[in-house]
Please model this.
Amino acid sequence: MISKTLMAASTRPIILAILSRGKDYGYSIIQKVKNISGGGIEWSDGMLYPVLQRMEMDRLITSEWIAVDGGRPRHYYHITDLGRQALETELSGWQKILQAMIHFSQPLLADE
Amino acid sequence: MFDLEKEIREWKKGFNKYESFEDGLVADMELHLRDAFAARLQDGLIAEEAFHKAVEQIGTAEQLAAEYGKNRELALDRRAPWRPARFLPALLWNYCKTARRRIFRHKVYSLINIAGLAAGMTCCLLIILYVTQEAGYDRFHRKAERIYRVILGAKPSEVPTNANGSMAIGPALKRDFPEIVEVVRLKKTGQGQRVFVGHRNKKFYEDQFFFATPEIFSVFDFPLLRGDPRTALHAPHAIVLTEEMAQKYFPGQDPMGKTVLADPYNEGKLISFLVKGIAANVPANSHVHFDFLAAYDIEAEDADNFGAIYQNYTYVLLGNRREAADLQSKLRPFLLRHWVNPWYDLYLQPLLDIRLHSHLRSEIEVNGDVTYILVFSLIALFIMAIACINYTNLATARAIQRAKEVAIRRTIGASRPQLVRQFLGEALTVSFLSACLAVGLSLCVLPLFNRLAGKELAAASLLQPAIGLAALTLIIVLGLLAGLFPALFLSRLQPGNPWSRHPRSAGSVLRKILVTFQFSLSIVTVAGALVAVRQWEFIQNKNLGFDREGMMVVTLNDAVRANYDAFRAEMLAVPGVRSLAASDYVPTRGSMHWNFQFEGNSDPVGQVVYRIDKDFFSTYNLRLIAGRPIQRVIESPSGNEFMISESSVRSIGYESASAAIGKAVQIENVRGFIAGVVGDIHIYSLHQNPYPTIYFIRPIPDHKYLSLRLHPGNLSRTMQAVAAAWRKMVPDYPLDYFFLDQNFLRLHEGDANVSRLIGCFSILCIVVACLGLFGLGSFTIEQRTKEIALRKVLGAPLSGIVSRLCREFIQWVLLANVIAWPAAYLLIRRWLRDFAYRTRIPPGIFVLAGLLAFLIAWITIIVPTWRAARANPVDSLRYE
Model:
C-alpha cells in the first residue's frame, strides 16, 4: 500500500513523464497510470483535475480543447519547456533517492 | 428508464453551489464521467450501475471544490503589486466601475430607480421615527417595567372603564401589600379644567397643573434640576415648576424660594405656593405632561372615601413585575376589606401599555392607538414593495442591454455566483444612494410630517443609533429584495443562447404581474385614504345629540358664582348671545359617574351625571323624546325630578322611553322620579357609544361652566363684548373659555392626523408606482421604435398605434382593481371597527379609487407613447 505522502509527491513527476511522451487528456492519464502500475497506483479520478490545473498555473503544462472526429471536444494537456526542465529535476532527485534506498535496504555483509 | 443525459445534468447541478467550479472545470469532469461510464459499460455493468460507479470514482463535489479552492487562493496571491490589496474581492473595483457607468449612462432610469427607492425609504424612516416614538412612550423611566397604574372597572362592566380613582386606594394598597414597594398619587382638580396661576403681572390659565405625592420622583424619572427630590413636595403648598414654567413666570430670575399664586379648585381663592424645585421639561413621549406639581393634599376631603372618585391617578411600583398577576388576584378581597358593597373593581395596568392600549374614561391625555401603528407600518411596507417592484421591473426589462456584458463575463470565466454578486452589488449601490437621498429628504419633510401627524419629532432623532441601524437594515433589505430577482435573472443569460437575442419576451409576464400588484397596493391605499377623509367628514358633521355650533363655554369661579344673577344678566345683554346655561360638566370636558337605584331594577345602575340649570335643554337644543323638561331644583329629599337619556332607558331595562316616565329614582337618601327622556348626547369621542346620562337641576354653586349660544354673525365682536362683561365682573381673573365644536374636533385629532397621513401616503404610492410605469413604459416603447415606425409606414393611424401601446399596460392596471377592491374593503372595515360611529363604505369609493389609479396611469403612459407614435419613421428605420 503506497502512502498518501508518497502518492502526492509522485503525482506531478508521473504526469509530466506521461505528457513528455505526447499530449493526453485526464481520463487517459489515469488509465495509463493504473495499467502501468498494474493497479498498484490508483489515483482518485476527480482529484487529478485540480492537480492538472495547479500544474497549468505553474506553467509546467498547457491545455487546449480539441474536437476529435466531430465528437465532443476534449481537454488535452501538453508539457511545456519549463515542465520538461522540472521533469528532469524531479527524475534526478528520484534517482538519487532510489539509489540511497536500494543501498540502505541491502543486508549488511557479515564480517568474516 | 435510465436517462444518461438527465442524470448528468442533475449531477452537474451539484457543482453549481461551489464557487471554485468554473464552466471549463465542470466540462472536464463531465467528459471524465462519460469516459468512466463508457468503461464501466464495457465491463458489463448495466447503464444505471455504471453511471453510479463512475460518479463514485470521480469523488464528491465538496472534496473537489476544496481542492480547486486551494488553487484559487494561490492564484489570488499571485497578483501584480499594483493590483488592489488581497482583503478586497478580486473584481470589486471592476464592479464599482461598471455600476457607476451604468448609473451615469442611463440617467433617466437610474433616477427613476433611485427616486422610487428614496421615496420608499423616506416614508419608512419617518414612519420608523413615528412608531419608535409611539412605542417608546414612558420607557425613559428606568423602573417602567415594574410600574402599574391602578384603574377601575365600574359595574356592571367586567372590564376596566376608568383611568381615575379614589384618593384612598393608594395608601391602603401600600399598607396591605408588602410586594408594593411604593405608591404615587397624581391628581388634577378637574378633567380638562384649567387652573389660574399668577406671579406679579404674569397671569395665565394653565392646563397641566397637578398635585403629586413626593414619591413621584423616586418612582418615575422626572429629574429635578434644582431642589431635593426627597423634600420638594413634602411641605403643604410646596410646588415644583418645569424649566419652561420657571422661564415663563420668572424670566431671568431664580424661582427657588419664591411664591406663585394659584386657584387650583376654581373657587376664586388664590393659594400661595412656595417654589421648592425646578424639574426638567417632561419629554414628549410621556403619557402625562405636567407643568406644575403641587404637594398632594393628603388631608383633603374624601381622602379616605373609596367611593369618591375624582381625577386622581394611583401608580404602584412592584418589587418584581412577576408579582403583578398574583397581586391582581388579591385586589377584589382587598376592596371588600375596606369597603362594603363596592361598585367597581380594581385592575393593574402596566405603565407601558397606557399610551397605545388605554382608552378609558378620564384619561390624563388623549392616548394613541396601536391600530395607527399597524396602519402606518402597512403603508410603509406597501411603498417599499412598490419601489422594489419598480427596480425589479426595470432591471429585468432592460436585460437585453446587459446580455453582451453577461456573455463576455461568462466566456472569460465568470461563474454564476460571481455574476449574482455583481448585480446584487449594483442593487445595493443604488439602494445606498437612495438611502443618502432619503436621509436628506426626511430632514426636509420632517416639519411637514410633524404637522400632519400632530407630532414634534426632532431632526436630531434621525441621528439616533437605532435609526442608523434601521437605515442600514433598509439599505440591505431593499437592495437585496429589489436586486435579487434581477441578479438571478441576468446571471442566467447564456452566451450564444438564441433566446438572449429576444429578451423582451423573457420575464414579461412577471413584469405585468408586478405592475398589477403595484397598482393593487396603490388602489388599496387610495381607497383607504378616501374612506379616512369620509370618516373625518362624518365625525365633523355627525349629530352629537346637541347643537355644537357657536357654543362658547366659559369656566366659572366662586367670584362669578357669588354674583351669578348679575353676571347672567350682563351676558344676556351682550348682543350676539342668544341664550346661556350653567352646568357642572359640558360635553368633552369630563363627567361624573354615580350609581342610581331605579324602580323595576334591583341593582344600582351607573349613570353619567349632569347637574344643570333650567336653560340647559333649550340652550343645547336637546331632543325631547318622552315626558317633559325638568324645572325644579333638587333641594329636598323627595319628590325630585330627573331626566334621563335614551341609553339610560336601555341600561336600566325599560321597554321604551314612555315606559320610563314616572318611574322612581333614588341616590343615597335623595328620591325622585323620571320626568322626561331626551336623546343621547356624545360627551366623548365617536370611538365610544353615548353613555347613559341622568340630568337634574342644581343651584349655581354646583356649576363649573357657563355655556353661551352665540349668534354666528360677527363672532369676534361678540367675544370681545363677553370678555369686557367678564372683566367688569371679575377684574382679577382673565377669561377662560373654549368652543365646544373645536374641543370635540380636538378629541379626534388623532383621526384627523391619520386621515391626512394616509392621504399623503396614498399619493406617494401612486407617484412611485407611476414612476415605475413610466420607466417601464418608456423602455418598452423604446424597444419597439422600429415596430412603431413600420406600422406608421404601412398606414396605421396614430390613434391606433397609441391605443395599441397603451393597452399593453392599462389592461393590467384595470386588472389590479380585481385584487385591490376586496383587500381594501377588508382592511377598511377592520379600521372602522374601532369607531362606535362610522361612515358607510359605498361601492363608489372603490370605483373612484380604481378610476383615479387608471387615470393617473393612463396620463403617465400616454406621454412617451404619444411621443413615440409621432416620431418620424425615417429616423427610427435609419438606425437599422
Remarks:
- The CA atoms of residues 201 and 249 of chain B lie 9 Å apart.
- Confidence is low (pLDDT under 50) at residues 498-503 of chain B.
- The interface with chain A takes residues 24-25, 27-29, 31-32, 34-36, 39, 57-59, 63-64, 67-68, 70-71, 74-75, 78 of chain B (CB under 8 Å).
- The two ends of chain B are 51 Å apart (CA to CA).
